[in-house]
């Protein structure tokens, strides 16, 4: 099995940390600038007959009034249609307007979405979860929810298993 895995989420949710853990190395390429191309390749992992190609998609622009931004946002949404799996990474502690923007993009993608709830190591009380999580899972009823700690490598093997099942 082989396919493209898009990793999306607002800044600081832990996308780079997660990928570093999955790939077992520091990423050679990180993308901060808005991309005009469809995807930026972040890394490839081949293991036991499964090849996952991790990609970044073009950035979203808040100001949808400007024609260029509208164009970029449209191309960002189209880019998400060109992948096999979308990893939507959120921080279990914090939900912001930027997460909301990403959610609006992810909501209508035709491929499977995996909701990666990161930073679970910061759960002092294990029952304590992202306050928006219940609401969020209602917004993405088809999405599988996988709690992880990218920093400590908790549950990453399980996440990779879920990804492989959907490729
Ligand atoms: P990105 O902007 O989404 O790529 O986020 P980064 O990977 O750069 O991470 C942002 C910050 O969150 C960094 O300080 C990371 O060390 C921290 N971080 C990432 N994953 C975890 C996690 O699982 N637990 C905790 N406690 N911190 C994390
Ligand atoms: Mg990053």
UniProtKB/TrEMBL annotation:
Annotated region (G1), positions in chain: 9-16
Residues noted as binding GTP in the record, renumbered to the chain: 9-16, 56-60, 118-121
Protein name stated in the entry: GTPase Era
G4: annotated span: 118-121
Region (G2): 35-39
Record key words, sorted: Cell membrane, Cytoplasm, GTP-binding, Membrane, Nucleotide-binding, Ribosome biogenesis, RNA-binding, rRNA-binding
Any one GO MF annotation of this record: small ribosomal subunit rRNA binding
Residues covered by region (G5): 148-150
Function: An essential GTPase that binds both GDP and GTP, with rapid nucleotide exchange. Plays a role in 16S rRNA processing and 30S ribosomal subunit biogenesis and possibly also in cell cycle regulation and energy metabolism.
Organism: Halopseudomonas xinjiangensis
Topology term for the membrane: Peripheral membrane protein
Intracellular or extracellular location(s): Cytoplasm; Cell membrane
Stated family: Belongs to the TRAFAC class TrmE-Era-EngA-EngB-Septin-like GTPase superfamily. Era GTPase family.
Gene name of the encoded protein: era
GO BP term (any one): ribosomal small subunit assembly
Self-association and partners: Monomer.
Chain positions covered by the region annotation G3: 56-59
Domain Era-type G: 1-167
One Gene Ontology cellular component: plasma membrane
Major subcellular site: cytoplasm
């Amino acid at each position: 099995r082989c396919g493209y895995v898009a990793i999306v989420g607002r800044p600081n949710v832990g996308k780079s940390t997660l990928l570093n853990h999955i790939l077992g190395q520091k990423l050679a390429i990180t993308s901060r600038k808005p991309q005009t191309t469809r995807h930026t390749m972040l890394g490839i992992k081949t293991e036991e007959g499964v090849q996952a190609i991790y990609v970044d998609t073009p950035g979203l622009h808040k100001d949808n009034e400007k024609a260029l931004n509208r164009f970029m946002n449209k191309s960002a949404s189209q880019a998400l249609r060109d992948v096999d799996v979308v990893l939507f990474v959120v921080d279990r502690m914090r939900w912001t307007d930027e997460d909301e923007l990403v959610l609006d993009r992810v909501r209508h993608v035709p491929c499977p979405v995996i909701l990666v709830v990161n930073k679970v190591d910061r759960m002092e009380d294990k029952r304590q979860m992202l306050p928006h999580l219940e609401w969020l899972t209602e917004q993405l009823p088809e999405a599988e929810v996988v709690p992880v700690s990218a920093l400590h490598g908790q549950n990453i093997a399980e996440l990779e298993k879920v990804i492989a099942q959907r490729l």
